[in-house]
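Hi Prof. W.,

I finally got the Sterile alpha motif domain-containing 9-like protein prediction working! I wasn't sure whether to trim anything, so I left the full sequence exactly as given:
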Amino acid sequence: MEYYTVPNKYGAQIPLQTEVRNKLSSLDVVWGNMYEGEDIDPQLVLEKEVEFYRGAPPKWLNFYCAEKNQKPFVKRDIYTKITELIQKKRETNHSISSIDLFHQPGSGGTTLAMQVLWDLRKKLRCAYAIDSADSKAIAQQVIHLFNAGGSQNQNTVLLFVDNIETEANEDMQFNSLQENLIENIKQSNISASTPVVIILNCLRKKNKTGKEKLMLCTSLSKEEQDSFNAKHAKVVKGHERHKKFHGFNIMQRNFSQTYITEACEYLKPLKTKKRPRNAQILSFLALINSYVPGSYLTETLCLEFLDKKNQISGRPTLEKQMEAFADLLVIYSTCAGEAKSEDRCIRMAHPMIAEKCLGLLTDAGVTLSDTTLKLLSNLCPQTVQPYFMKIIKQLLKKRETGPPKGEKEEKLPFSQLIQDIKEKENKSKCVGLFKHAAKKFPEDAFIPQALARFYYIELSDYAKAAYWAKTAIQREPNNSFIRDTLGQVYKNQLKNQNLAKSSSILQIAKQAFKAFEVEAETAERELEPGMQEDGVTNISTVFNYRGLFGYIQAANTIFYKLSKVNPEWSKVLRQEAKQSLIHSEKCGKYQSLLTSLRQRTEDKCNFFDKFLIYSKLKINKQEPDYICKDTADCYNNYVKEEEQFFRSFAGLLSTLSHVTSVSDLEQITEQWKEIHVDSQTDSDALNYILANIILSQKSASSEILRTVPELQEILQKLWDRQNENRSPEFYLLVLLLFWPDSAKKTSNTPDLKVCVQYMRESYERTYQKYLRFRYLVPLFFLGNGGGLQRLVHQTDFTSLFVEEHETAEIQGFRRIQGEIRNHKVFALRGPDQIEVLPHNPASVYNTDLVSFYLGFTIRGPVAYNIRYVKKSAQFVDKHKKNIIERVKKVDLIINDLRPMIPTEQYSTIKAASTNNEKMEKLYTILSAGYEIKDTFYQSLLKNEQGLIQDLTKFGKKSSN
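And this is what came out:
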């Protein structure tokens, strides 16, 4: 082809220069004019069509020929939902957005995603991410593709990312891609009126929970069944060997098990001894395609195994040697076009066929463990290709999410293969398989780690579990997650073994504490510069807190175990009694451990107070309940329950979650007042101020509440004494109490721009290491009230700030007027311009006036629900006459604007006799600025949706 084209946002096709195309090596771009005008060999077209129907992944050529020859692919019902969602995403104020498409293995998810890209190639710049792990390269190239043709021709990229999951953490890689995209948008100084990229993220998922918004399943609706039947009739007419088209036929038969049984019937009887090598290849494929959907073996690997003498020249082709099983297999090229050599691979025609073949093999006596051992022995040379090593790891150690139990999804203890071998064969087979793999891959730490877990979970053999956990550590000593297993071994031994003597309990406890402490120290170092540059260690994107939490769990167990031996131990552990019991129980050598245990556990409990209050896993995902429970239990065991809410700033914040009595909160506030007066430490002063804020959330009329000026005065003194290098909590209170409004200010009000900068620096020093890649919880929002009542403590509001709910109006929250400049957000409060962080960085893509809700995290002020107000204000001005004349629900709209209208003017508007008069008077107030116009527009959307739609259509017609 002489040139390739991509569409601009108006649909015009823009030719791409060669140098631009050369920068897109990580993307498989679906060109707007792909294959058009090319002389394509009809035989190649037929080959690719047959390959696809038999079960190979589709090629872009398949879609081109189907469209050209008017033989379109069957559209699944979910196709329309996806295309409609994409259109909605195009209309949002986000530079980046995503759509998650879950699909059960073998349901056609990849084909569906490619079908969407092909059909939209002339409207959007569509591309498939070739190597989803290389997020930096993908992000750079997406920006190149978006910008191709110059700033006047920019257009949204629709990026298909297939199964973007990592072994360590399923969300981190996707987050990395989004962060790299945002960074590249900033660096390229993109300020566009159209979204930069919409990510179609395809995720294989075996079990459906009902929470998935889009999921393609292995079942057809009646409409889909009718479409496949009609397509089947055409396929039968066009192909004599259509009965071998298992990839298509399985779907057309609605994934029928009867069809699968009939298709595999000719394999019987299967040999179990002296099996020919091609039959062994079949068993290997059945294994990996059953447990690792989408996996394959390369032609080269198969031929090397089939040819004992390794005679490269003159040997039969792979097709010839696998001819006996050809109907159930598909051999295809991973490259587009006519490439047929180096990249060719082989797999089963469908995952259901793979599972059936594997079942026939096991029924005949060829066990799963035997097949896996032979796979490791025969197909894993000294140097294993990365793609195949990934398959091996998924077979042996990737823990899948099991069937949902109620609303919870829990990972299986081991990989699905290991689970099945354990249940269908025996546990010793699992051990043998792990040992063989550990020997086969002497540098891999994850296999001995999995073996250690198997020993302590399934066999309760703690000595061997410890041995293999230490082996894993030797292989990767700088990985804290690998180190965690040794601590878990000792912790479970401590918990599960019947230990009658105090000394025996303490002996194992000491080993557990030591293992968890070393793990925690390793986790602390995992982001230090030396660790990043050593070229060996895989740096963890998230902080590994398991060592700290494991210590807490072990501390709980030792408390219960020792107290059972002798109730006096509880007082010793709390340091409420003399240490004589230590010696009478012959535990003198553990005295150092016992005397330091209370303080060590208290420190770790304080860590989790902050960790769980200031952050969570994701905006819509909390930590497991047992983390909070075990932490609270540990604090109650080693300190005192009644002191729980006085231990830290974060501990005080937690009171709003479970202390509902005003009298209890008043008591807490009074106690902090006494502590503050007596101690005069800065931290006690901060806790006293916070106690007042918390009390105000429950009782604005409490007699013991201090006024805002009184609390400001306390903070002002601290600020004047030292305003730099303080805690994030100090700066948080300064922002909460001094944020510009009508509240009385002291003469030397803290500079909030400086305060925000100091707070971010303090956060980076104090918490960034621990909270990296976690969602920072908004602790308070700015509301419509006055004094302390203008602060609204977060409860469940964060659910309204996910992308699809960002237009939601929240009762009692105040919208702040702001501005976006140079990809930064500023809050505008009179003469003040204070930089705030965007809750969703993808919503910051254009220089414009905005409004938003203001929240405060432990990192600083954050703009939530950013709305570009200039467009709404322009709409209100443009259609003033029509709006005044046609609005019916005037009183509802006036009520929505009530917090923004001065009392006297509000009374004047309400006193007007007609709707038109009310609206005219309301418009005189709208001149106050963009913020009130935007609120007015949002109220119109809610109350006069039909009118807005009519005026929008009218506006489009008049502009054409």
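The first strand starts at residue 4 and ends at 7. Does that look reasonable to you?

Thanks,
D.
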